[in-house]
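Researcher: Please translate sequence to structure tokens.
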Amino acid sequence: MKFDNKLMNAAQKILHQKEFKRQAPELLQWQAVVDQACAQYNQQINLNRKYDYALLRQLLATVGTDPFVESNFWCACGFNITFGDEVFFNHDVIVNDYAPVTFGNQINIAPRTIFETLVYPQAVAERNQGLVTAKPITVEDGVWIGANTTITAGVTLGKNAIIAAGSVVTTDVPPQTLYAGNPARLIKHL
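Model: Translation complete:
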């Protein structure tokens, strides 16, 4: 699949602003291209059990060695996602990458996990303007995330942390800890 670098650069320029319109035409056009690439990747798995990592390497900023990304993977922009080595995504992982989302090495992500970088204003008047901001997410080496989990904007998951299934992570998680709940909180040190 060929990507339009001019369109990608226009989308990147929008996202480099402090606030941006989520519905900006260039951003929506780029997302249509990304949607098509994700659909192609997923269809090859679902129909042929073919994992097209060449396509992922075109779509994402960086993909390390031995990725394993199951079907129904979806991302918003692609160019903001960095994979280290041995990153495993189970089915139905969503990465809403309006800001950088960095995955370290030996990461395990269970089904239906969402990484959400967007931050919406709380005041009604500001929301009605349609402007949003985005904050990066960092997943350090050795992190395991259980099914049906949401990781919110600006969060760092520390090295070898475990996030229990069904959690909503709204704050940084220190290394070598187990977090669970909504909002996720410290259960124990590992």
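Researcher: Any highlights?
Model: Helices lie at 5-15, 25-48, 53-59, 124-128.
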